[in-house]
UniProtKB/TrEMBL annotation:
Keyword Mitochondrion tagged: no
Domain of life, per lineage: Bacteria
Biological classification of the source: Bacteria, Bacillati, Actinomycetota, Actinomycetes, Pseudonocardiales
Entries under Gene3D superfamilies matching the protein: Farnesyl Diphosphate Synthase (1.10.600.10)
PROSITE patterns (UniProt xref): POLYPRENYL_SYNTHASE_1, POLYPRENYL_SYNTHASE_2
Keywords: Magnesium, Metal-binding, Transferase
Transferase is among the record's keywords: yes
Cofactor requirements of the protein: Mg(2+)
InterPro entries: Isoprenoid_synthase_dom_sf, Polyprenyl_synt, Polyprenyl_synt_CS
Protein name, entry field: Polyprenyl synthetase family protein
The enzyme's E.C. designation: 2.5.1.-
Species for this entry: Pseudonocardia yunnanensis
Amino acid sequence: MTRTGALDTGHDPFGADTRPVDHLLDDTGLIVAVEAALAAFLRSRTTDTTAIDPAFAEATDALVAFVLQGGKRIRPTFAWWGWRGAGGAVDSPEAVAVLRAVSALELIQACALIHDDLMDASATRRGRPTVHVEFARRHVAAGWTGQPARFGAAAAILLGDLALAWADDMLRAAGLPLSALLRATPPWQAMRTEMLGGQYLDVLHQATGDTSTRAALQIDRYKTAAYTVERPLHLGAALADGRPELISAYRRFGADIGVAFQLRDDLLGVFGDPAVTGKPAGDDLREGKRTLLVAVAVERAEKRGQRAARDAVTAAVGDPDLDAAGVDRIRDLLTDLGAVQTIEHRIAALTGSALDALSAVEIDEPAATELVALAELATRRRS
């Protein structure tokens, strides 16, 4: 153990730089702080990869770029304000360690996105080639033997796995007191299992063609809500040794806002502006995502006896050749069937119930205000 009671990992991968804790009292400053903590940690780990082989270090550079060159940092933000709302003080000795610990959530996110893009055969992410596409391109450019797509898939799997491993490393190396690290372990473990479970259910439901609302909501609950809002809040509260009733309220809030966040994402996946979202319009349809938006449309069409509309929607889901005109037609059907309005109403209802959960417990300021603002931001965004 170190003098401060933090877990001793042998060396500090962050160095002595405490600047990431500057300006934590506003959202912009928090995002900058998270990115500084990530950059410091990743700089250390890429030094380790160079010792293995420069080729491996070059590959991990792609992971570092993926993590640092995009993202809204939503998960660390929720975790930070969860900690603050449970009594964590920005000027406390553990603030830097907590900032580093919650920043590790971005590496969980990197794992999920890299693997998700591979499973969905997505070509772009944040306006850039996805990891598996980029490494397939490298294979072609170098004239290597074998199949470029298989090499790209292998690289994406390994780099996604590395991001998950580094997330654990970053949490453990953050400098938390051992007692806080032990409290953080249950939500951290649950979050990883829930995320991977949700990913599997997504793949399973795509394979079985399950377009039911139950299947869609199950994926939303575990693939997105749990690791986007619910468990990050739980993690933050656990780090502050928050009261059980606060953790319960956080989890209810997080589950509802997390699902609402995904429902907004589903709408953007079909109706969003590619210049803003960074993904081609209608990509969710081409990738075969079984969203609640699609499930509601199919159910509405069946109830109304509109078989042509039902068949058109189901045929579009998973059609890699769906062109812009086809996307426009599906947009019109989703609107005419009332699916878009239904999803908007569901988002509003979930946001309301989430805010009710927050109002039922005492949350320290300014976190209480910030969490309300985050709920609005997560459910009304355009990208």
